[in-house]
Amino acid sequence: MKKTSTKIKEVVAVKSVKIDLPTEIFEIPMNTNLVHQVVTTQMANRRQVIAHAKSRAEVSGGGIKPWKQKGTGRARHGSINSPIWIGGGVTHGPLKDRIWKKRLPKNIKNKALFMILSDKAKTGLFVIAEELKVNEAKTKQGREFLKSIGIAESCLIALPKMDKNMI
Questions:
Q1: Closest Cα to residue 160, out of 137, 132, 141, 139?
Q2: What is d(CA 18, CA 132) in angstroms, rounded to the nearest whole number?
Q3: 3-class state of residue 81 by DSSP
Q4: pLDDT tens over the chain, length 167 residues
Q5: What residues have CB less than 8 Å from 72, skipping those under 6 apart?
Q6: Beta bridge pairs of residue 154
Q7: Contact, 79 vs 65, CB < 8 A?
Q8: Using CA atoms, how far apart are residues 25 and 110, in angstroms rounded to an integer?
Q9: pTM over 0.70
Q10: Distance of alpha carbon 145 from alpha carbon 164, whole angstroms
């Protein structure tokens, strides 16, 4: 079987321009501790608690004493919700009412963002394109476009307005 090579058409029209970046955003020295604090806060706020075990108060049933206290020859019991019983509550199980949320002031979040942006600009991983136009909404063509401007893995594209083809 003979392989035929298909050339990708003009994927995206790019107009690149050199611009001066504001120094109050793009010349901030990196503080890794501050960036780490912001990242861990974001990860904690995304965390969801899913593990939950019912206590003896949450298990259904058990409103009546299973048998009388004396005279049966069996051990005394007050409720079938006891952790000793099968189907009873769990003694020290995980509860879903834990709160992982953390809050950081806006100025700290903004400063960390500016640090990351300035670091990306210093290392050459920050690209500004004045105009992006996509002919067809194809992932392969988008990947080829990113390779052509020097981005191999992943990136963040900020658009000035909604464009379904770019998305």
A1: 132
A2: 16
A3: coil
A4: 444 434 434 444 555 566 788 888 889 999 999 999 999 999 999 999 899 999 999 999 888 999 999 999 999 999 999 999 999 999 999 999 889 999 999 999 999 999 999 998 888 777 777 677 777 888 888 788 778 777 777 777 777 788 887 77
A5: none
A6: none
A7: yes
A8: 10
A9: no
A10: 17
- Stated length of the chain: 167
User: Reduced to 3 states, what is the DSSP secondary structure of residue 45?
Assistant: helix
The structure tokens listed for 52 are 């939950």
Both tokens of 80, joined, read: 């079938």
| CA 93 and chain centroid, separation | 27
C-alpha of 126 from chain center: 22
Give phi and psi for 105, each to the nearest 5: -65, 150
Helix (H) or strand (E) holding 36: helix 32-46
